[in-house]
Design brief:
Strand content of chain A: 35-45%
Number of helices of chain B: 8
CATH topology of chain A: Porin
Strand content of chain B: under 5%
Structural class of chain A: mainly beta
Largest sheet of chain B: none
Largest interface: A-B, 27 and 21 residues
Shape of chain A: globular
Order of helices and strands of chain B: HHHHHHHH
Distance between the termini of chain A: 27 Å
Largest sheet of chain A: 12 strands, antiparallel, barrel
Oligomer: heterodimer
CATH class of chain A: Mainly Beta
Radius of gyration of chain B: 15 Å
Shape of chain B: globular
Number of domains of chain B: 1
Number of strands of chain B: 0
Number of domains of chain A: 1
Radius of gyration of chain A: 19 Å
Helix content of chain B: 40-55%
Order of helices and strands of chain A: HHEEEEEHEEHEEEEEEE
Helix content of chain A: 10-25%
CATH superfamily of chain B: Globins
């Protein structure tokens, strides 16, 4: 998918979502032609927040939950804006996602990896920015992360994320093999309600460099490999989930080592319409610049 | 939550013909006979008295049930569920169910979750709304959040029996 297509998808979805949000109760009417399309059936935060790649999840990790607040008899949707401030870079993401009958999730996101003044040091030019579009589909297979309290079975979903980066020439110059790629993942999420504890584990088959922001595959390795992303969260109140995440990543490029990522997060739901996630993220070394640790902020608006 | 619905169901299934109504107490509408069993409560009780104490025992559970039902009946999302419900019976059986699960020394004399919700047509979103009202009521009673979740974890598995798919 090209960026133009991705952008047009975003443009076409945003007005609907925004209209629905602004319309409040009218949002339900918009979808009355769809059978069983009540909104707001899930409990607070149980659709997750918007992960950096646009899918419902934590910040770095994608979860098995479907995004938004639609239960099996409803739909949910949201838009997000995420900002990550690092010592030598800045990452911005905007996107939209819908959850359909707590079964299917569709998501789009546009990420901008801004090298700022670091771009000049890398020989790319001041403010050089990689832009990546991510289109994702997730399908719930079995389990219920929230209500399946009598079973050991987590909620399990599979998903695909297709990513396309607009800087193929630079990616090629640093040893990357492709400017687009497709990740496939299996996610398992379970809320241990009696402990107020949420646990997620995801295995992602990928060869994305820095999640695709530096392309796909490389001179060191060009094969898909399973990578892990995990989240542990503790519900402090109905509105507040705090926790930590860890994500392993490939290390395909010879010119720069890539590290695993880590974060400590707090996700606060003001209501089912607005949530804010703040995190301390450690993304390690990115394109030879070490210790990329900083602040992650993500606003999600939806229903 | 479903419990409430379930009770509602019990009330709804009133059979006016059967006079010997062993399972309804004075002030309640008659119900068809059924086998009374604690197993109908749909969950095993907690051990010890900590949970019962955290819910302020019988009086606290009474307030929680009342507020949960009042909120649910006033909520446009869920009000319709209770239109044909014997609220007197529902309040009693819900209190019994909560008391039984919280190990407060009660017997549960209501119907099973599946029977009680058989004809209500409860939808998943209704269930979510009922949980939210129960959470609000427990918070108002001062039940700590984590304790609330321990209780909700007992109720959550009842969802498939109470919700119409």
């Amino acid at each position: 998918m090209t960026h133009e297509v991705g952008a047009s998808v975003i443009r076409s979805i945003f007005p609907c979502l925004l209209a629905c949000l602004l319309a409040g109760p009218a949002a339900a009417q918009v979808f009355d032609w769809v059978p069983d399309s009540r909104t707001g059936g899930k409990l607070l935060l149980t659709g997750g927040v918007s992960s950096v790649e646009g899918a419902g999840g934590g910040g770095l990790a994608t979860w098995a939950v479907t995004t938004g607040y639609g239960a099996e008899d409803g739909i949910g949707g949201n838009v997000h804006a995420t900002y990550v401030s690092l010592p030598d870079y800045e990452l911005r993401s905007v996107g939209a996602a819908v959850g359909l009958w707590d079964r299917v999730e569709l998501s789009v996101a546009r990420q901008e990896f801004d090298t700022g003044s670091t771009g000049a040091l890398l020989g790319l030019g001041e403010g050089f920015t990689f832009t990546q579009d991510v289109v994702g589909v997730k399908v719930k297979l079995v389990g219920d992360a929230v209500y399946g309290q009598a079973s050991w079975l987590p909620q399990v979903s599979i998903g695909v994320q297709h990513k396309s980066n607009d800087q193929g020439a630079v990616i090629s110059a640093v040893g990357g093999r492709d400017d687009e790629g497709t990740d496939v993942y299996v996610a398992a999420t379970k809320l241990f309600l009696s402990e107020s504890l949420l646990v997620n584990g995801t295995v992602r088959w990928t060869k994305a460099n820095q999640t695709g922001l530096l392309g796909f595959g490389g001179d060191r390795n060009d094969d898909y490999a399973p990578r892990f992303e995990g989240s542990v969260g503790y519900l402090l109140t109905r509105n507040l989930l705090v926790g930590a995440e860890y994500r392993t990543k490939p290390d395909n490029l010879g010119f720069a080592a890539e590290d695993d990522a880590f974060d400590l997060f707090a996700a606060y739901a003001f209501s089912k319409n607005v949530s804010l996630t703040a995190a301390y993220v450690d993304l390690g070394s990115i394109a030879t610049f070490e210790d990329q640790r900083g602040l992650y902020l993500s606003l999600q608006v939806g229903f | 939550m479903r419990i409430a619905l379930l009770f509602a169901l019990m009330a709804v299934t009133t059979g006016p013909a059967l006079a010997q109504d062993a399972h309804a107490v004075p002030g309640e509408e008659p119900v068809d006979p059924y086998v009374v069993s604690d197993a109908n409560a749909g969950a095993t009780p907690f051990e010890g008295q900590a949970m019962w104490a955290a819910f302020n025992e019988g009086e606290g559970v009474g307030r929680i049930v009342d507020q949960m039902l009042d909120l649910s009946a006033a909520d446009p999302r869920t009000a319709g569920i209770f239109v044909a419900t014997d609220m007197v019976r529902l309040r009693r059986t819900l209190r019994e169910q909560f008391c039984y699960i919280l190990n407060g020394g009660c017997r549960y004399t209501g119907r099973s979750m599946a029977d009680a919700h058989d004809e209500i047509g409860l939808q998943p979103a209704d269930f979510g709304a009922l949980v939210e009202h129960l959470q609000t009521a427990m918070t108002a009673e001062g039940v700590p959040f984590r304790t609330q979740n321990r209780f909700l974890a007992k109720l959550a598995p009842m969802r498939p029996d109470t919700v119409t798919r």
